[in-house]
Amino acid sequence: MGYPLGCSTGQKASDALFFAHHNRVKGTQATVWALDPERLNEKAIKQNGIVSIDEITTADSINTHYWHPRYAQASTDLPTMAVSPMFANTRMLAQRSRFTLSGDSFSSLDQQYDGALVRDRILIRIDIPADLHDELDDYLRVSGLRPFTFFPDLEGLRLEHEARVRRSFRELDQFASHALKPKDPK
Description:
By secondary structure, this protein is of the alpha+beta class.
């Protein structure tokens, strides 16, 4: 996950947890990758900040055309860099979208730069144990991070309804297993 501008570290981590958990099957582990995009760009293109993709390039900006298949290939290998989009829709705004623009390497980001991104903690892997499924569900709900938070449309409403139904069945199952448990005759 990238670090969106203008939000706290805790908020970014909670957003990442939502997406890692969103379609996770109960009993499976999830993984969150946390990326510091500004440090990635310092390493990759020797520029501070996140690159804005637009159609106009100036002498002091990064020419992002080299990463587009329509334009001529650069004479050197292109690095992967962190970018912000030039347009946004409702979902992208709700999700505070940022992206990585892949360069010429066919390696995953954790393997690029001979693993230096992980060693230098520019890229961090966080594994979420499978047995924390229900607890993470509860944390996200209490934190107000619902499907509609990130999908502010009819799809988000559908996903939110499904999540409520699943939670109701889970609570009913917990209640029934406790209430119908045989009493210890003493």
